Amino acid sequence: MSKLDEERVEHIVQTILQDYEGERAVNKMDLYNQPDKKAIIDIVEKLLKILYPGYYSDKVYKIYSVKNNMAAAIEDVIFHLNKQVMIVLRYCCTSSDLSDSALEEKAQNMTFDFMEKIPQIREYLETDIQAAYDGDPAAGSKDEVILSYPGLYAISVYRIAHELFLLGVPMIPRIMTEHAHSITGIDIHPGASIGKHFFMDHGTGIVIGETTVIGEHVKVYQGVTLGGLSTKGGQKLKGIKRHPTIGDRVTIYSGSSILGGDTVIEEDVVVGGNTFVTKSIAKGTRVSVKKQELQLK
Q: Residue 216 contacts by C-beta under 8 Å, 6 or more apart in sequence?
């Protein structure tokens, strides 16, 4: 290989460095004050150990020392979560007018309020595990559900992120759920409201939008979208109910799209596969597309 042209290398370096100047979003280099994505993902993994101590904990610990290990893990999460919450509060403009002492107090209260929700999160997850086991004849045990089902991983991270979202913590909840999205292919916005006994069978390709409301004992299959009718309005639609409401004991089969903030799927509805629903459905209804004809050549 011929020797690189040093002058051209220097020219490229300087051109790229000059491109960093200006007020564009891609130019932001506030490295020390912005949230640490890696640290937030680490907090997620530590929280999973707290939620499922017998499944995610380090195997080097003996049974009798698990509680001591968990106590240390809880304190560790409190410390690091408080630090990241403090950073995002300072980083986001909504809190920029607060003093450092006020930010510290707000971050600490948010962190403590969230950690006090851990027993409630675990209560909800117990019902999700039961729903997955009861709803899937291929499930060999609840252990199998916890250790291998991507849907349970996604709902676990969502339930963590949702509580932070309700407390008004910016950015961190979305980083958490998008991390789960990247691993599982399941995209749940932390702002969605999801009741107990929620089961995503297979899971891949499921999308649940920010203002979606889901009742209890709901079962959703792969490729389902609970989305908005249109996003043309962009930021003007912020805060508006854009996504559907799903009642209790609804089943939504694969490939279905249910769209719109005014769309309400009432209790005990079954939505068949590959359907496109943009209007409300009365309770007890079976929704399906007209039977398609196979052509064999």
A: 195, 196, 197, 198, 248, 249
